[in-house]
Amino acid sequence: MENKPTQTCRNCGHPLPEGAKFCPACSQKNSDGRLTFGELGRQFLSNFLDLDNRIFKTLGALAVPGKLTSEYFKGKHIRFYHPVRLFLFSVAVLIAAITININKAGLDGIDIMAKKAERAHYKKELYHRLDSVITDVKTIYPETIVATAFDSLVYRFGGKKGLAVSDSIEITGAFEFGGSSAKERHFIKVPLEELAEMSENELWEKYHVEEGIWNKMMFSQNIRVMKNTKNFVFYLLGNIIWMVLIMMPMLALALKLLYIRRPYFYYEHLLFSFHTHTFIFILYALILILQILTKTEDVQFLGFAVPVYLYMSMKRFYGQGWIKTIVKFLLASFMYVFIFAGAMMLTTLASVFLF
User: Fold this and answer.
1) Would 83 disulfide with which of 17, 68, 154, 274, CB 3.0-4.6 Å?
2) Do the Cβ atoms of 302 and 287 come closer than 8 Å?
3) What is the pLDDT, as a whole number, of residue 132?
4) Which band of pLDDT confidence, cut at 50, 70 and 90, is reported for residue 112?
5) What distance in Å separates the CA atoms of residue 18 and residue 65, rounded to the nearest whole number?
């Protein structure tokens, strides 16, 4: 079937000159919209190679401190990925790396509290059932050898050894919000088996937690977190990513204040923040992946590249001398720690309350 050209571009609606084969506005081929199999394949290959080329150019420029931001503001926009899109890509890579690490760590690293409570509960229940059966059997077969054999079985199972010791955890030990002094904080130890088999209200009534909305809320939320530790970690991680995204304008404002006498617009500081955090996220994702592959934590020394990268990025992008850059780097680091600590505290509190 003939692929007839049209008078207007079907992609952007731009009027086409007589006999034009391509749109002068968006470069799409002038046709009625139908594509042959060969054209579809060539289009896919062209887009894929262009995508691949842009990835390597973007990551290559990102690896050099300050280069990507400098090149972007020289007008080279199409050559590189958009800063926000690149930032979100780095976030996705970091989340994937963290998720793999959490799953590789297994229950010993994340869900140990919930699993210990569950095992303690089932062990206790199984022991009571076994004890009941043994009592019935001893009644039917009172011979000494039978009784001795069953007593040995109970001992090996842990009835006289393992269950005599009550494993417990501090429900509020991980979250100290009782007050400004140690005397005002509340620490309540709950046996693991009770954590597994009792509801929040039952635990609340049994341990006579002091009245008050704050105490009850903290007690209930801590129990919920302890029972679902792994889910809470992923929930908190998602909130931290949003926190970092919201922090970007604040960090850009801090840089604007540091370089208030320099001819930079606010959004230039903002894109600089996006690019530096993109590098940091990709680097930490790489460290986590290398830890999995090498099964060692020796690769964590790569994290020392972060302050060097940030300093060199500020030196290159803002173009000031070594001494001025060192002073402003230290000030920026202090402001960043202050902003990050405050945002992290609020994010953790909100995550605990809303989980």
Assistant:
1) 274
2) yes
3) 72
4) low
5) 49
27, 11 Cβ separation under 8 angstroms: no
Q: CA–CA distance from 257 to each of 83, 252, 253 (Å)?
A: 22, 9, 6
pLDDT at 317 over 60: yes
In the chain, the amino acid numbered 264 is Y
Per-residue burial over 244-264, b = 16 or more CB atoms within 10 Å of its CB, e = otherwise: beebbeebbbbbbebbeeeeb
Map residue 313 onto helix, strand or coil.
helix
CA dihedral 159, 164, 165, 168 (to 10 degrees): 90
Q: How many CB atoms lie within 10 A of CB 182?
A: 9
Count of C-beta atoms within a 10 Å radius of residue 179:
11
Residue 30 corresponds to which tokens in the numbers above?
Answer: 């002038």
Domain locations along the chain: 1-34, 60-105+229-354
What H or E segment, with its residue span, contains residue 203?
helix 200-206
| Most confident stretch, 23-37, 58-72, 201-215 | 58-72
Residue 67's identity, in one-letter code, is K
Contact 203, 223 (CB under 8 A): yes
Residues 6+ apart with CB under 8 A from 84: 274
Eight-class DSSP state of 78: T
Task: Write out the DSSP string of 20-44.
Answer: -SB-TTT--B-SSS---HHHHHHHH
3 state DSSP class of 342: helix
CB neighbourhood size of 141 (10 A): 11
- Sorting pLDDT into bands at 50, 70 and 90, what band is 41? low
pLDDT category, 314, cuts 50, 70, 90?
A: very high
d(CA 275, CA 269): 10
Q: Decide if pLDDT at 47 tops 80.
A: no
Q: Do 313 and 255 form a contact (C-beta atoms < 8 A)? A: no
Report how far residue 27's alpha carbon sits from residue 12's, in angstroms, rounded to the nearest whole number: 10
Q: Coil, strand or helix: which one is 295?
A: coil
Among 79-83, 193-197, 295-299, 338-342, name the one with the lowest average pLDDT. Answer: 193-197
